[in-house]
């Protein structure tokens, strides 16, 4: 990717309005070393088992959660599993991993790189935020006995940088808008770049529909779809009445991906069932309603992923940047096993639906598939081939 020269920014015509992650870097993470992956609106990581597809999505999700302000221990409950297998400890018995990304937007391409120590104790030991060759934020662990890193951010005033300690269990970039005064042009550039990175990262929905959990009645609640889509019936109960147009698109998608006639997809309270629960069904149009519990795993995953692509942050369990207008945000769906249990017709229909939705700009998708040759003819798909 070509970056602008230090101190300059790309023209307004060349800058996208919605910040989005355009590259994922895994310098040293799980099975990956010195790896950089370009990401488009619709990207598929392809490769056999053990090639690192799931770990790439896991790293993306980790960056998203850190960008949302989560503590390091919440994001990496098993940090040692993220350390490359052959990584040897240094003289102080330290081992860790490094991940990063590039977010493009109104400020041009902004790079974030993070070094995490996993052993002997979990902490961020280095972070760098840059744009156009200019370092906006840099942190380093100077005193291992303190639970803090020394940070220096760009000022471009009477003093070129400002130095202060930051906690070693949170992403410094996410803290910058609260710590930088914004009195100089340099400080305002730091704030704008940090906010672009945070907005690009935060609106992420990681999902992996679990058919076995989607077959039973579920209690009514907030109506926000969970990661495993096990509360699918509850969400259908809500969305069918709230947005007829999108529900009609969902019915069209299900009709193309499920066996037999489909007039509608709905949720109802089971007769004689427990109060406050609903179950999902397919209306076949001739008086017959098929409970989702009778559908195959592929049909259920197809239905759930179609619903994800046709909804948004108001329906999915995500943490959007509330201070930024929705029109300036992009939801990114991380779909591990995107093609799992799907037949040829279902996976081609689903990727074409994803391409249509991603083309509009309000949603992006990063999926993991065992093989992406079937998606080669679909416009707008970026395939990232991984070797085992």
Task: Provide a descriptive summary of the structure in words.
By secondary structure, the protein is α+β, with helices and mostly antiparallel strands. The chain has two domains: 12-203, no CATH class; 211-316, no CATH class. Helix content is 26%, strand content 28%. The chain is built from eight helices and 17 strands. It has helices at 53-67, 72-75, 172-179, 185-202, 232-242, 244-257, 297-310, 344-359, and strands spanning 20-29, 32-38, 42-46, 95-104, 110-119, 123-131, 134-140, 148-154, 161-167, 204-207, 218-219, 264-268, 277-283, 289-291, 331-335, 363-369, 381-385. It has an eight-stranded antiparallel beta sheet, covered by helices on one side. Strand 4 and strand 5 (110-119) form a beta hairpin. Helix 1 (53-67) crosses helix 4, helix 6 runs antiparallel to helix 7 and helix 7 runs parallel beside helix 8 (344-359). The longest helix is centred in the middle third of the chain and has 18 residues, at 185-202. The radius of gyration is 23 Å and the shape is elongated. The two termini are 26 Å apart. Residues 1-14 have low confidence and may be disordered.
């Amino acid at each position: 990717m070509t970056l602008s020269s230090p101190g300059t920014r790309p023209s307004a015509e060349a800058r996208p309005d919605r910040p989005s992650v355009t590259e994922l870097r895994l310098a040293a993470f799980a099975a990956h070393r010195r790896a950089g992956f370009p990401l488009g609106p619709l990207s598929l990581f392809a490769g056999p088992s053990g090639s690192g597809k799931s770990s790439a999505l896991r790293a993306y999700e980790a960056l998203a959660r850190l960008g949302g302000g989560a503590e390091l221990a919440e994001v990496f409950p098993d940090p040692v599993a993220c350390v490359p297998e052959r990584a040897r400890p240094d003289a102080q018995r330290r081992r860790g991993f490094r991940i990063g990304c590039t977010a493009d937007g109104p400020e041009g391409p902004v790079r974030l790189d993070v070094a995490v120590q996993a052993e002997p104790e979990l902490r961020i030991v280095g972070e760098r935020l840059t744009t156009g060759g200019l370092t906006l934020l840099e942190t380093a662990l100077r005193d291992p006995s303190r639970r803090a890193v020394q940070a220096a951010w760009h000022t471009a005033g009477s003093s070129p940088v400002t130095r202060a300690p930051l906690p070693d269990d949170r992403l410094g970039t996410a803290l910058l808008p609260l710590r930088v005064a914004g009195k100089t042009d340099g400080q305002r550039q730091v704030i704008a770049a940090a906010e672009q990175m945070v907005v690009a990262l935060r609106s992420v929905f990681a999902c992996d529909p679990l058919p076995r959990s989607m077959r039973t009645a579920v209690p009514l609640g907030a109506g926000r779809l969970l990661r495993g889509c096990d509360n699918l019936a509850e969400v259908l109960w809500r969305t069918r009445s709230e947005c007829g147009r999108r529900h009609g698109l969902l019915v069209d998608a299900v009709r193309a991906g499920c066996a037999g006639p489909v007039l509608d997809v709905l949720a109802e309270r089971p007769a004689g069932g427990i109060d406050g629960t609903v179950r999902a069904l397919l209306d076949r149009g001739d008086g017959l309603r098929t409970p989702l519990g009778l559908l195959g795993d592929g049909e259920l995953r197809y239905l759930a992923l179609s619903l994800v692509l046709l909804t948004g942050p108001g329906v999915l369990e995500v943490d959007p940047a509330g201070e930024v207008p929705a029109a300036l945000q992009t939801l990114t769906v991380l779909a591990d096993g995107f093609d799992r249990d799907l037949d040829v017709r279902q996976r081609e229909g689903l990727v074409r639906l994803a391409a249509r939705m991603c083309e509009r700009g309000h949603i992006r998708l990063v999926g993991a598939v065992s093989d992406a040759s079937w998606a080669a003819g679909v416009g707008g798909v970026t395939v990232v081939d991984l070797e085992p």
